[in-house]
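Human: I wish I could look at a protein chain and see how it folds. This is the protein in question:
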Amino acid sequence: MKQIFVIIVLFFLINLNVACAADSIQIEKSLKDPDAVVGGDVVVLLEFINPFREEIPLKVVDQNILGGNGIDIQCLEYTLPDLKQITIAYDPIKLTESGQFVLGSAQITYINPLTGLEEIVESNTLNVSVKASNVSGTQVKGITTIYQCGGVSMQSTSQSSQSTTSTQPEPEPEPDPESIENRIQNNQMNQDSGALKQQIGEQLQEQKKIDEAFQKNVVENPKLQKMHQDLLDSGYSVVDASFNPLTNDSGSFEFLYQNSSKWNATLKGRIENGTMKELMVLTDEEKQKIINLLQENKRFQEYHQQLSNQGFNLTPILFNQISSNHTEIIVPYLNRSGAEKKITADYIDGTIKNVFLEDENPEKGFGWLMFLVFLAGFIVFVFYKWFYKKPESIYTRDSLGGALRGSVDYLAEAHRMLSEARILFGEGREKDAYEKVSQAVRLYFSHSLNLGRELTSAELSLILEKEDADYSPGIFECLSLCSLVEFAKHKPQDADFKEIIDKAEKIIT
């Protein structure tokens, strides 16, 4: 009986070990092509076997260095898909030295979904034989260090160079035919080249100091820290960040967050001379709230039904956050022939306002048609100015003064929009920059003329034609060019944008 009991216990333990092994992720390291030669590349593969058949978040630690060249993964978050078996490949490693090398085991850490416990699994080690070749020249070595865990994303590469020698016999050097004068001249050129390299190096060091100082100013700001902590408390974590410094205490920045449900949030702002001028947060939850309010708006419902009846289909909604309490909403529509229309609205202090239907590109040649309309308006304006007596303006200086003394500081807001336009243009977002300039001009006239509503460019042009001649034709040129860029009918240049910004500044001032 004792022998039978011992056999049963051993059988149970053996099957338990097999079951536990089957319920753990397995990992194996290999090479895509085992034939490794100096001057070529080698690709390291990791093969995973997932017995759980569900997505498993992993943390990978791995080091693959061959002769001073390779990848050092200190921590990398990766989600294993719900497949039984999958193989991933690292970036190719350039081979610069011959010899025998050993790649250490890769280590993964994960939570076992069956037990709820953290498990650590290691792969095999890998022996790599790199053969010599007759390739000669200077090979660049570099070890790329990667850390992408816990919301921190860092990657850096340390590089060095090495001269490799060809196995073929080198030809005998020929006598130097250069004269003494040529040698002196070449020596001077080498000195100039060295001075240029030193100057570039100093400029790079200075830029690095500016970047570091600006980032320090951003992350140490109390308002930003509070908003950051609020997002962390709401279950978000930082996944990316970008900084665009103009000086060490001025520039723009943006942080991207994500929670466990894959919902995103952005925290962005602008610093001038060390003072936080703008700080805004927009989450996917807030966007959904805005969409729900917009869908309840009667005017939006009418426009949406009108476009649907015309064969237009809704495309993804765009959000342009102008300030902490003002978000512009752009709802694009597209039909089968490629024509586009859009509904625009503003979300201000928790309320949907200024819902309009705008045509964006209904047919080919629309940009030229718009340009001709503005040109015709300008000709009418000049003709009216020279051949007819100007009627008294319907807007007096008192009305302008009243607008200036109103509760809305529209001048400051318009100048802020122009500053934002400069930043957008510097980031390569030309269309957004020109749209922001047009918005600033329209905002200025909407308030200065006491119209009580937002104007389109066409509406503003018609109103100004009836106004005093003090309004420069530069306004029409400014609005026309902004519209052409916005509808992708004109490729903007740096000089064009500077000219438009200058005109807008003079108009608003």
Remarks:
- The CA atoms of residues 69 and 115 lie 40 Å apart.
- Residues 217-283 form one domain.
- The chain has four domains: 24-164, 217-283, 297-361, 366-508.
- The radius of gyration is 33 Å.
